[in-house]
Amino acid sequence: MKRAIFPGSFDPITLGHYDIITRGLTLFDELVIAIGINAEKKYMFSVEERKQFIEEAFRDVPKIKVMTYEGLTVDFCKKINAQFILRGLRNPADFEFEKAIAHTNRKLSEIETVFLLTSSGKSYISSSIVRDVIRNGGDYTGLVPDTVRVKE
Length: 152
Fold this sequence. Notes:
Layout: E1 3-8, H1 15-24, E2 30-36, H2 47-57, E3 64-69, H3 73-80, E4 84-89, H4 92-108, E5 112-117, H5 127-135
Parallel strand pairs: 1-2, 1-4, 2-3, 4-5
Protein backbone atom coordinates (compact mmCIF):
# COMPACT_ATOMS: atom_id res chain seq x y z
CA MET A 1 0.00 0.00 0.00
CA LYS A 2 1.30 3.45 -0.93
CA ARG A 3 0.81 5.64 2.16
CA ALA A 4 1.74 9.32 2.22
CA ILE A 5 1.52 12.01 4.81
CA PHE A 6 0.62 15.61 4.12
CA PRO A 7 2.19 17.45 7.05
CA GLY A 8 1.43 20.96 8.22
CA SER A 9 0.04 23.07 11.01
CA PHE A 10 -3.24 23.68 9.13
CA ASP A 11 -3.98 26.80 11.19
CA PRO A 12 -6.47 26.72 9.52
CA ILE A 13 -6.77 24.37 6.54
CA THR A 14 -7.19 26.44 3.36
CA LEU A 15 -8.59 25.78 -0.10
CA GLY A 16 -4.96 25.51 -1.24
CA HIS A 17 -4.42 22.62 1.19
CA TYR A 18 -7.75 21.12 0.11
CA ASP A 19 -6.63 21.27 -3.52
CA ILE A 20 -3.37 19.42 -2.83
CA ILE A 21 -5.11 16.81 -0.65
CA THR A 22 -7.81 16.13 -3.23
CA ARG A 23 -5.31 15.77 -6.05
CA GLY A 24 -2.93 13.74 -3.87
CA LEU A 25 -5.67 11.16 -3.32
CA THR A 26 -5.22 10.01 -6.91
CA LEU A 27 -1.55 9.16 -6.25
CA PHE A 28 -1.74 7.20 -2.99
CA ASP A 29 -3.77 4.40 -1.44
CA GLU A 30 -3.95 6.29 1.84
CA LEU A 31 -3.24 9.91 2.73
CA VAL A 32 -2.60 10.87 6.34
CA ILE A 33 -3.13 14.54 7.01
CA ALA A 34 -0.54 15.03 9.73
CA ILE A 35 -1.05 18.03 12.00
CA GLY A 36 2.32 18.95 13.43
CA ILE A 37 2.35 20.23 16.99
CA ASN A 38 5.05 22.70 17.95
CA ALA A 39 4.92 23.78 21.60
CA GLU A 40 6.89 26.94 20.74
CA LYS A 41 4.30 28.17 18.24
CA LYS A 42 1.18 30.19 19.02
CA TYR A 43 -1.81 28.93 17.04
CA MET A 44 -5.08 30.72 16.28
CA PHE A 45 -7.03 27.45 16.43
CA SER A 46 -6.53 24.63 18.93
CA VAL A 47 -5.28 21.29 17.65
CA GLU A 48 -8.74 19.87 18.34
CA GLU A 49 -10.40 22.58 16.20
CA ARG A 50 -7.89 22.10 13.37
CA LYS A 51 -8.38 18.34 13.44
CA GLN A 52 -12.17 18.76 13.44
CA PHE A 53 -12.09 21.18 10.47
CA ILE A 54 -10.14 18.62 8.44
CA GLU A 55 -12.08 15.53 9.55
CA GLU A 56 -15.38 17.22 8.69
CA ALA A 57 -14.08 18.40 5.31
CA PHE A 58 -13.12 14.83 4.36
CA ARG A 59 -15.64 12.80 6.38
CA ASP A 60 -16.82 10.91 3.28
CA VAL A 61 -13.32 10.05 2.03
CA PRO A 62 -12.17 6.69 3.47
CA LYS A 63 -8.63 7.02 2.03
CA ILE A 64 -7.93 9.97 4.38
CA LYS A 65 -6.88 9.76 8.01
CA VAL A 66 -6.16 12.76 10.24
CA MET A 67 -3.48 12.43 12.90
CA THR A 68 -1.34 14.70 15.07
CA TYR A 69 2.37 14.35 15.74
CA GLU A 70 5.32 16.00 17.43
CA GLY A 71 8.97 15.83 16.45
CA LEU A 72 10.57 15.08 13.11
CA THR A 73 8.24 14.39 10.21
CA VAL A 74 10.44 11.50 9.01
CA ASP A 75 10.17 9.86 12.44
CA PHE A 76 6.38 10.10 12.22
CA CYS A 77 6.53 8.58 8.72
CA LYS A 78 8.50 5.62 10.04
CA LYS A 79 6.12 5.21 12.97
CA ILE A 80 3.05 4.89 10.72
CA ASN A 81 4.87 3.20 7.80
CA ALA A 82 4.40 6.05 5.32
CA GLN A 83 6.73 5.92 2.33
CA PHE A 84 6.00 9.40 0.97
CA ILE A 85 5.62 13.00 2.09
CA LEU A 86 3.25 15.10 -0.01
CA ARG A 87 3.90 18.85 -0.22
CA GLY A 88 2.25 21.65 -2.14
CA LEU A 89 4.13 24.41 -3.93
CA ARG A 90 2.60 27.84 -4.50
CA ASN A 91 5.60 29.78 -5.79
CA PRO A 92 9.39 29.66 -6.33
CA ALA A 93 10.08 30.63 -2.70
CA ASP A 94 8.06 27.61 -1.54
CA PHE A 95 10.11 25.42 -3.87
CA GLU A 96 13.46 26.58 -2.49
CA PHE A 97 12.31 26.12 1.11
CA GLU A 98 10.67 22.74 0.49
CA LYS A 99 13.61 21.49 -1.58
CA ALA A 100 15.98 22.01 1.36
CA ILE A 101 13.63 20.14 3.70
CA ALA A 102 13.15 17.31 1.18
CA HIS A 103 16.93 16.89 0.78
CA THR A 104 17.36 16.83 4.56
CA ASN A 105 14.55 14.29 4.98
CA ARG A 106 16.07 12.12 2.26
CA LYS A 107 19.43 12.25 4.04
CA LEU A 108 17.75 11.17 7.31
CA SER A 109 15.58 8.42 5.82
CA GLU A 110 14.42 6.60 2.72
CA ILE A 111 11.21 8.64 2.53
CA GLU A 112 10.51 10.38 -0.77
CA THR A 113 8.88 13.80 -1.04
CA VAL A 114 6.33 14.33 -3.80
CA PHE A 115 5.52 17.90 -4.84
CA LEU A 116 2.31 19.10 -6.42
CA LEU A 117 1.79 22.61 -7.74
CA THR A 118 -1.19 24.32 -6.18
CA SER A 119 -3.88 25.12 -8.77
CA SER A 120 -3.38 28.63 -10.14
CA GLY A 121 -6.63 29.98 -8.70
CA LYS A 122 -5.56 28.98 -5.19
CA SER A 123 -1.83 29.68 -5.22
CA TYR A 124 -2.18 33.01 -3.41
CA ILE A 125 -3.91 31.49 -0.36
CA SER A 126 -1.91 30.82 2.80
CA SER A 127 -2.93 30.10 6.37
CA SER A 128 -1.18 33.28 7.53
CA ILE A 129 -3.24 35.38 5.09
CA VAL A 130 -6.42 33.64 6.26
CA ARG A 131 -5.54 34.32 9.91
CA ASP A 132 -4.93 37.99 9.10
CA VAL A 133 -8.30 38.27 7.32
CA ILE A 134 -10.03 36.61 10.31
CA ARG A 135 -8.25 38.85 12.85
CA ASN A 136 -9.36 41.92 10.94
CA GLY A 137 -12.98 40.85 10.52
CA GLY A 138 -12.80 40.15 6.79
CA ASP A 139 -14.74 37.57 4.82
CA TYR A 140 -12.49 34.49 4.90
CA THR A 141 -15.14 32.03 3.64
CA GLY A 142 -13.83 32.01 0.05
CA LEU A 143 -10.37 30.98 1.28
CA VAL A 144 -11.18 27.90 3.39
CA PRO A 145 -13.39 24.80 3.21
CA ASP A 146 -16.94 25.28 4.52
CA THR A 147 -16.02 23.32 7.67
CA VAL A 148 -13.76 26.16 8.90
CA ARG A 149 -15.86 28.54 10.93
CA VAL A 150 -14.70 31.07 13.50
CA LYS A 151 -16.62 31.16 16.76
CA GLU A 152 -18.29 34.54 17.05
